[in-house]
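Worked Example 4.2. Consider the chain below.
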Amino acid sequence: MTRPFRYTSPVPPKSATGVVADVYAQMATDFGIERAATFVVLSASPPLLTSAWALTRESLLTGRVSRTDKEVVAAGVSLANRCPFCVDAHTVLLHATGDHRLAETIARGEQPADPGHRRLLAWGKDMSTPQPFGPAAAPEHIGTALTFHFINRIASALLTESMLPCGLQRIRAVRSAAGRSLARTVRRELVAGLSLPMLETEGEAPAWAAGTAVGTAYGALRTAAELGAGLLSEEDAAFVRESVAAWDGVTPLPLHATDLPDRAERPGARLALLAARAPYRITDEDVAAWLAPPFTDHCLVHLIAFGAICAMGRVEATLTSERRVAS
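Applying the procedure from the previous section yields the following C-alpha cells:
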C-alpha cells in the first residue's frame, strides 16, 4: 500500500503506546478510521495529536448540528485551501451521511441544490461573509471550519494528495463504497467531551465556543501548535506572525519569491510561512534544507503546526471582527 506520508515516519497504530494508542483507539471507534493519516501524521507529538483529534471530535463528530451540514462547511474550507486530500475525504464522509447526490455535486465543483447547503459551502470558502446559522450552532460550525483551516495545512504540507492508493478515490463508485462502509459510525450519536481527558496542553477557550468542549480543545491546540515557534529565532517567529497578520484571512494571495525567506539562509522561517500561506507549495528541497540533525519528525510537525496555527488564528480574527449572523 502506498504510504501517504511525505516526510515523516509516524507511529503505526499497532506499535502505539500511551496516549497515542488511546487516541488511535477512540479514533477507530468514533471516526471509523483507525489509520486516518491527517491525525497519524501528528503522532510524533502527543500534544498536537491529542488536541487536533479533540477539536475535530468535539466540533465535527459530536453535537446537535447536522453532520451533513458540518461536512459541507469542512468541504468548503478544504476547497478554499486547495487541499485535494481533504476535499476527497469530506466527499467520502458526505456519502457516509447518506447524501450521495450532495457528495458528488461538491466533488464536481458544482453548487448544491439545497439553498442552506449552498450558503454553508460559501461560508466555508469565505468566513468573512454572514454566518448562515444562529448562535446555538456557532461553536460546532466555527469549530469545524477552524479545525480544517489547521488540518488542511497539515495535510497539504505532510501528506500526498491521494487519500487512497493509486488515487482510487477519484472513482465515484469507490467514493460511494468507502462512504457506505463508514455510514454506521458517522450516524452514531456520540457523547461530547470524551476526548478531553487525553489532552496534554491547555489554553484559553474562545468566546465563540460558548463554554463547550470545542473551546477547551481549541485552546489546547493553540497552545500545542505555538510550541513550534521555539524552533525559530525570535526574529523569524515574529516575521512569520507579521506576514500572516498582514494577510486578510480570506483572499488566497500569491506568495512571490520576494515574500519568502531564502531557503539556504532561513529555511525554518520559509517552511513555517509556506505552511501558513501556501502549504501546497512546500517542496522536497524546502524540507531538506531544514530537516537535518538535531531536528526530527517531532520538530517538523511542530514547525508546520506553528505556521498552520498562525493562519488559523488569522482566519479566526477575521471571523470575530465581522461576527455577522444571517437572518
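Residues 297-322 form the longest helix (26 residues). The mean pLDDT is 92. Compare this with Example 4.1 before moving on.
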